Amino acid sequence: MGIVSEEEAIIELQELIDQVEEPLKTTLKNVHQGYLRETLIRFLKARDWNVRKAHTMLVECLRWRLDNQIDSILSKPIVPSELYRDVRDSQLIGMSGYTREGLPVFAIGVGLSTFDKASVHYYVQSHIQINEYRDRVLLPSVSKKNGRPITTCVKVLDMTGLKLSALSQIKLVTIISTIDDLNYPEKTNTYYVVNAPYVFSACWKVVKPLLQERTRKKVHVLSGCGKDELLKIMDFTSLPHFCRRGSSSGSSHHTQSVDCFSIDHPFHQQLYNYVKHHYETQGQAEPAKQGSFHVGFPEPVAERVEMAKTIESELQKFEKM
């Protein structure tokens, strides 16, 4: 069997996708936002440039979007606002700025997220909304501003507070990670891990070999809060709040900025107002109390299941020490 070049793989996958039924083509437009080639490349990378597997993955993603009404999720606010505040206080994620290359910088409080103030469905709904807002609003906007396609982001993972209680969160984190793996592949350019305690180092040592080489290369564990390394790719104003320790007095005026996890941060205010506005345009003045947006949970990919079991095993070892 001949080896297909990357360019040939892209062309072949596009020809296959051109043949899907119209509803799938419609939701595909929300996925690629005018950057179809970059989207095809992401799915090909996720399947090691195997066209058949990439085609299957993309079609299943599009069907998942249709089955779960993902195209309309940005018009379904989490209400009341107090519930959304609870979600934000326990699912720590935010956007702190952009790298100098224009990639959005997402901050994630891995160690201090508790996921204990709402049902799993609200956390999944919130996560997908952030993904969709990133892909359908932020990235197209920054691509236009920079005059080139920007279709990925960087993530800074804060491990502060990581402890044995993380065991209770593994199932939910695995669900969210699997949704990303299958439906938003290759959207993260680099993961930066900061404020890593010893328990993380021990888990990382055993999890790292389980990762695909492509994923492994994306993960960079930085010393301390990672400020010095991160300042090589972004300005101080784009650093997540937990990376600003030991700042010089010359930068002190920046330290008054709002915690990027907070519902009061501009990113979350803009996101929530965007979703609420799109709800109101449907003809209702105020979002009524409604149930959470239920999304079908895919079966976790084998790699994620293995990692979850390994992390659980390692954390239990610490519990016995």
- Measured on Cα atoms, how large is the radius of gyration? 20 Å
The biggest sheet, with number of strands, parallel, antiparallel or mixed sense and barrel status, is: 5 strands, mixed
Global outline:
globular
Uncertain runs are: 248-256
Overall mean pLDDT score? Answer: 87
Number of DSSP strand runs: 5
H/I helix tally: 12
* Distance N to C terminus: 54 Å
Q: What is the helix fraction of residues, given as a range? A: 40-55%
Structural class based on helices, strands and sheet pairing: alpha/beta
Along the chain, the helix and strand elements come as HHHHHEEHEHEHHEHHH
Approximately how much beta-strand content do the residues carry?
A: 5-15%
For the biggest β-sheet, the strand order reads: 1-2-3-4-5
Question: What is the secondary structure topology, with strand pairs?
Answer:
Elements: H1 6-17, H2 22-32, H3 36-46, H4 51-67, H5 81-90, E1 93-98, E2 104-109, H6 120-146, E3 153-158, H7 170-183, E4 188-194, H8 198-207, H9 213-216, E5 219-221, H10 227-230, H11 266-280, H12 302-320
Parallel strand pairs: 2-3, 3-4, 4-5
Antiparallel strand pairs: 1-2
Helix pairs in contact: 1-3, 1-4, 2-4, 3-4, 7-12, 8-12
Organism: Eruca vesicaria subsp. sativa
Protein name: CRAL-TRIO domain-containing protein
Pfam families: CRAL_TRIO (PF00650), CRAL_TRIO_N (PF03765)
Structure in words:
This protein has 321 residues and is an alpha/beta fold. Helix content is 48%, strand content 9%. The protein is built from twelve helices and five strands. It has helices at 6-17, 22-32, 36-46, 51-67, 81-90, 120-146, 170-183, 198-207, 213-216, 227-230, 266-280, 302-320, and strands spanning 93-98, 104-109, 153-158, 188-194, 219-221. α2 crosses α4, α3 crosses α4 and α8 (198-207) crosses α12 (302-320). It is globular, with a radius of gyration of 20 Å. Residues 248-256 have low confidence and may be disordered.
